[in-house]
Amino acid sequence: MLEYDITHHLAFDWVIVTYFFLGGLSAGAFFFSVAAKHWKKEFEPMAKTAAIVAPLSVAAGMIMLLLHLGRPLRAWRLLLNFRPASALSWGFWFLSIYLILSVIHAWFQFRDETRRAKGVGYAGLPFAFFVSVYSAVLLQQAPGKVLWHHSAVLPWMFLTGGVVSGISVVMLISAGKLQAPQIKTLGKFLAWLVVLELAMIAGEIIVFINGGSEEVAAALFLIANGKVYTILFWLVEVVIGAAVPVVILFTGKFPKITQYVASVLLLVGIYMMRYIVVIGGQIIS
Questions:
Q1: Which of 6, 135, 244, 250 could form a disulfide with 20 if both were Cys (CB 3.0 to 4.6 A apart)?
Q2: CA end-to-end span of the chain
Q3: What pTM was estimated for this model as a whole?
Q4: 40 — phi, psi (to 5°)?
Q5: CB burial class (10 A; 0-12, 13-18, 19+) of residue 6?
């Protein structure tokens, strides 16, 4: 009997994973910038940093995407060939508008033009929301990918992860501006978001296990027999990237430097979640 070693061609590789990660991070930073400036005044010293992180991260992600396409100078054709049924067409337009709004918002924030920053910030919120969930919607349109197409909570997982990663980066950059009470309050908020994301992941796995044969296979691949992906899921995403920082942030009794280590671990966990969903989702289909 002949045996064939069939390798999987990955349409989406680590570059796309990073692009998705940076897009979610940008949206999370934008949300936090608006909230810190206009709703939660105790975090106002971090608002400018968050406003600057938003356009820089999404711009970096878009540049990576364009270079990955092979012919970046032809990207403008997506603007002229709009297809209402295509998440890619919607995504390109919304990303472009969001990038422009986030740059203008950062400029007004930097110049302390509060009224204008507020108007642009509020206008940008729906676009930031779209950017945070767009990559998940794009994945859900792919037929034959069980981990993508059969997931009901994927957009909300990406939204939550984007907020966590955006705030984590802002905390790291704004380290010198934060007092202990601010770190503790923001840390507990991040911890609850991570708990929410873990609950969504657990619920998804339970649904898959009680589903059809394809769903059961996908769940077992993730939690038991996916070899390297199972290790990445339990060790990196769940333990290192979620459980450890949650304990640190909930207790708040560790040195300040430990709080920032927790932020780094959260970034690792969120990135790994996207990596497993995007790369692993192509392998188990």
A1: 135
A2: 25
A3: 0.85
A4: -115, 85
A5: exposed
Q: Where are the domains of the chain?
A: 14-283
Going residue by residue through the chain, which has 285 residues, state the pLDDT in tens, using 9 for 90 and above: 434 344 556 677 788 899 899 999 999 999 999 998 888 877 878 888 899 999 999 999 888 887 777 666 666 566 666 666 666 677 778 888 899 999 999 999 888 888 888 898 899 999 999 888 888 888 877 766 777 766 778 889 999 999 999 999 988 887 767 676 777 788 888 899 999 999 998 888 888 888 777 778 778 878 888 788 888 989 999 999 999 999 888 886 667 778 788 889 999 999 999 998 888 878 775
The single residue listed with the structure tokens 């998804």 is 204
